[in-house]
Amino acid sequence: MSIELKGISHSYDAKNYILKDFNLTIDKGEIVAIIGSSGSGKSTLLNIVGGINVPSSGEILLDGVNINNLKAKDVESFKLSKIGYIFQNYNLIPFLNVMDNILLPVNLLKKKLDSYKEEAINLLKELNLESKANANILELSGGEQQRVAIARALILNPSIILADEPTGSLDRDNTTNFMKLLKEISIKRSISVMLVTHDLKVTEYATRVIDISK
Ligand SMILES: Nc1ncnc2c1ncn2[C@@H]1O[C@H](COP(=O)(O)OP(=O)(O)O)[C@@H](O)[C@H]1O
Ligand SMILES: [Mg+2]
C-alpha cells in the first residue's frame, strides 16, 4: 500500500481537535473519497498526507517512508516525485503553454527536460489533448484544463494522487469524464488516489468512501 495514516490527530490551536486518532491505509489502484460537512477537516487531512500540514500527532507513511522523519533537504523532492496534486481551480500557470505546465514538476526537480517530453506527449494522447501541446491555458475549456492538470500530476510517475474537490469547477459531463479517466489511470498505473468531494457522482467511482464527520 502506498498511503498509511496511523493515529493522526490535529489541532490548529492546541485546544480544538479537528482530527482525532484517524487511521487509514490506501492500496495501489484504490480511489478513496473523503466526504464530510464543511469545516470537518477534509482539506486539513489531505494537506497532512501531502506534507503541507504537519499533524499534532500520528504517523504518515508514503510507500513505507515516514515523511516527517525525512531530512529537510529531501522533503520537497520526495513529495514532488511521489505525489501528484490536482486542485479544484486547476492551478495551471496561465503564462505557460500546455506542454510547459505539464513539465513544471520536472523543472522544479531540476531533472533533464528532454527525457520527459516524450512522456508528456504520451500523456497528452492518453488524455485526448494531443492537438493542445502548444495551446495557451486560457484558451482551454475547464474540462481540458483539468486534464492538463492530470497530465502534470502524472509526469513524474507518482504513486499517489491527492485531489481536493477536483471536480468542483466542472459540469456534470466533465465530472464523469474526469472520474472515468482517473479510475482508468489509477488501475493501469497502480496509483493510490485520495480525493475530497461532496459530489455523489464522484463517490460512485471511488473504491471506498469515508465520511470524516462521523
Ligand atoms: N491554517 C489554518 N489555521 C487555523 N485553522 C484552520 C486552518 N485551516 C483550516 N482551519 C480550520 O480547521 C477546520 C477544518 O478546516 P478544513 O480542513 O479546511 O475543512 P474542510 O476542508 O472539511 O471544509 C475549520 O474549522 C477551519 O476553519
Ligand atoms: Mg476543504
From TrEMBL:
<dbReference type="InterPro" id="IPR027417">
    <property type="entry name" value="P-loop_NTPase"/>
</dbReference>
<protein>
    <submittedName>
        <fullName>ABC transporter ATP-binding protein</fullName>
    </submittedName>
</protein>
<feature type="coiled-coil region">
    <location>
        <begin position="106"/>
        <end position="133"/>
    </location>
</feature>
<dbReference type="Pfam" id="PF00005">
    <property type="entry name" value="ABC_tran"/>
</dbReference>
<dbReference type="InterPro" id="IPR015854">
    <property type="entry name" value="ABC_transpr_LolD-like"/>
</dbReference>
<keyword id="KW-0067">ATP-binding</keyword>
<keyword id="KW-0813">Transport</keyword>
<keyword id="KW-0547">Nucleotide-binding</keyword>
<feature type="domain" description="ABC transporter">
    <location>
        <begin position="3"/>
        <end position="214"/>
    </location>
</feature>
<dbReference type="InterPro" id="IPR003593">
    <property type="entry name" value="AAA+_ATPase"/>
</dbReference>
<keyword id="KW-0175">Coiled coil</keyword>
<dbReference type="GO" id="GO:0005524">
    <property type="term" value="F:ATP binding"/>
</dbReference>
<dbReference type="InterPro" id="IPR003439">
    <property type="entry name" value="ABC_transporter-like_ATP-bd"/>
</dbReference>
<dbReference type="InterPro" id="IPR017911">
    <property type="entry name" value="MacB-like_ATP-bd"/>
</dbReference>
<dbReference type="InterPro" id="IPR017871">
    <property type="entry name" value="ABC_transporter-like_CS"/>
</dbReference>
